[in-house]
What we know:
The protein is α+β, with helices and mostly antiparallel strands. The chain has one domain. 27% of the residues lie in helices and 38% in strands. It has a 9-stranded antiparallel sheet. Strands 7-8 form a two-stranded antiparallel ribbon. The radius of gyration is 18 Å and the shape is globular. The termini are close together.
Amino acid sequence: MEKFALIVCSGQWNVRIFTPNWVYKNVYCIASHKPMDVKLQYNSAAVQYKYDDIEFSVSDSKLELKCNDLDETKLTKIDGIFKHVTELLNHTPIFAVGYNIVCTLSKEELITNPNFNKLLDEDKLGTYSLNSKTFFKAYDNFKSSIILSTDGRQGSIICNYEFSALDLLFEDGKSFYMIKKDYKDIFNYELY
């Protein structure tokens, strides 16, 4: 099972701010220039950095932080990085913030995960099967959704918490902890 965590923040970002020196100092919080992967995406005018298994990318419309390791220390770290960057750039208009954990299941894992198939197969239209289903829950300060999808060869589970304002965010790491708890309650399976 492939798993990763992702924080997505839609807003109006000034990509020109995110130079390698600025990212070293303010995102990864390191003084020396250690090797860091940098990719430029010309079609979307985005820049992507990767250091110590944490990916950071920014375009005019969104900022993303991703880690492929669902270790609580790393999740707390990317949450802290995100909050630090938004505090430094507090003048940036922000529209929404999403905390996501994405799991991709192989065909074998689909077969052995009865809760996934049970939840997905509840709706049929004649001989057509539903290939995607979204479960949604609204709280006072945020929305939570779990999206299940499959094409028969592989499946994915996306757990998302969406906040409409920065002042509604939980303390560092708690959003990912709550996703982990919801996932275990629904699928009876530990994410990390």
